[in-house]
Design a protein that fits this description.
By secondary structure, this protein is of the alpha/beta class. It has 10 helices and 9 strands. It has one domain: Rossmann fold, CATH 3.40.50.
């Protein structure tokens, strides 16, 4: 399945991936795990006997995006950071995800091959939608859930955001991509950062094959997330129609025992400092 516009684009992207992975201050190894959707690339770190923690990135963010939280989280946990199966990264897709059911099947089949019967699981943006879908349909496979900067999932997605994404992807003008990333991060993620460079290449030089579009889960679906849940929102995240405070209030009405945290001034795309802050919140929640 072709993901990049050219071989040159793919080479540049893989260099950006390596540069982002260089920021991980821990020893890592790569695994490729087969499911009916292809081979999922997973970055593994942490002690072999550590409690399993699975990380799913946002769209085009890749498994390497978690570097700012890895050092703290991997001290006592075995971490499995997935590249989304049919997006840019190092997974080898053979079948496109088309629905939340496909997402659940992909995650479950991958966990089965890894012999992980039950895990703690973290998602970011699109990854949060996938994680919430999996946890609501396979609660017996999940200990604790963390949803960070969820795209839709807990609120209706903004039509303006959808329009901005579509325009950015279909019009090959790099100025639009830069503007989109600036708006997404509220200006906190600088063009010099490894994550910005990777996302810029992903958005300007790759093709979007995935058909999964995150949407608001029903109150009934959200109520199925009865396991311990942490929701982390950016105060100025514009992806969803509702603001962070209103989302916080709504979730606590449906899931009174959920924990909700808001990162001051953060948008949808977080800076290294904001990611580190979220890592401390995740660590405290898991403990």
């Amino acid at each position: 399945m072709k993901l990049f516009k050219s071989l040159k684009s793919e080479i540049e992207f893989q260099k950006a991936y390596d540069n982002l992975l260089d920021d991980w201050a821990v020893e890592t190894q790569s695994l490729w795990v087969r499911s009916e959707f292809g081979e999922t690339h997973i970055i593994v770190t942490g002690p072999e006997n550590g409690k399993p923690l699975v990380l799913l990135p946002g769209a085009q963010g890749t498994a390497a995006m978690w570097g700012d939280v890895i050092s703290e989280l991997s001290v006592s946990r075995r971490i499995y950071s997935f590249d989304l199966i049919d997006q840019v990264g190092r997974s080898r897709p053979e079948k496109i995800l088309t629905s939340p059911t496909d997402c659940v099947e992909w995650i479950e089949q991958t966990l089965d091959v890894l012999s992980l019967s039950k895990v703690d699981i973290v998602g970011n943006s699109l990854g949060s939608f996938m994680v919430a879908s999996f946890a609501s349909q396979r609660p017996e496979r999940v200990n604790k859930v963390i949803l960070s900067a969820p795209a839709a999932t807990v609120a209706n997605i903004s039509l303006l955001y959808i329009f901005q994404v579509i325009i950015t992807l279909i019009i090959p003008f790099k100025g639009l991509t830069k503007r989109f990333l600036e708006l997404s991060s509220q200006g906190y993620v600088k063009p010099s950062s490894p994550l910005y460079k990777l996302l810029f290449l992903a958005m300007s030089e790759s093709k979007v094959n995935s058909k999964v579009v995150p949407h608001l889960l029903s109150d009934k679906q959200l109520s199925l997330l009865s396991m311990p849940l942490l929701l982390i929102l950016g105060e100025k995240d514009k992806v969803n129609k509702a603001n962070a405070l209103n989302i916080h209030k709504k979730i606590l009405q449906i899931l009174p025992n959920a924990e909700c945290k808001i990162l001051p001034n953060a948008g949808h795309l977080w800076s290294s400092e904001q990611f580190r802050h979220s890592g401390k919140l995740i660590e405290a929640f898991l403990n």
